[in-house]
Structure of MbtH protein:
Amino acid sequence: MSNADESDRILYNVVINHEEQYSIYPAERQPPLGWKAVGIPRSREECLQYISEVWVDMRPLSLRQAMAQR
């Protein structure tokens, strides 16, 4: 079995941090400190698709808030 076949079977969680930045993390592991899982475990491609749909403003939350106060 190739590495590509193996990676197709791995499930991931979409994770988000306090700055509303997104990433993916293997579902079998606890997210790193400061990150929390969003939704259900899914394939890598599904996670990346979800992120591309919801993370439309790449600026950290603190920067967006500071700019909104100007």
In short: The chain has a mean pLDDT of 92.
